[in-house]
Structure formats: structure tokens, C-alpha cells
Design a protein that fits this description.
This protein is mainly α and 59 residues long. It contains three helices and no strands. It has helices spanning 3-14, 18-39, 43-57. The protein is globular, with a radius of gyration of 13 Å. It starts with a helix and ends with a helix.
Length: 59
Amino acid sequence: MNKKEVIGKVSYLSAVSTTDCYKVLIALEEVLSSELKATKGTRNIFDKLYRLMTILKNK
């Protein structure tokens, strides 16, 4: 999937506008990017991403 397809699918499944989905996904991308830089590698970022997804799923 490309970014446009992801935004469209998230928008459809969440009933949130594509504009708002775009803003949220861009912000998430920035957060994950900064975390990756802070951890200086991919090993820890996957653990953090998994924990983030678990938190979001349980809300």
C-alpha cells in the first residue's frame, strides 16, 4: 500500500475525514522518526511501535 491508500483505508474504517487522517498519520510518522533517531537504531523502535499499537488497540 502507498500512503494515499493507507490514508483512504484508515479514513474509511474510522469514519474520519481523509484530511484529518493525513494529519494524524503525518504526525505519527514524525513521532516514530524522532523515536528512531533517539534510539539510534531499529531494534528498540519495533518494541516501542508494538507497545504504542497495543495501547491504541486497548483504548
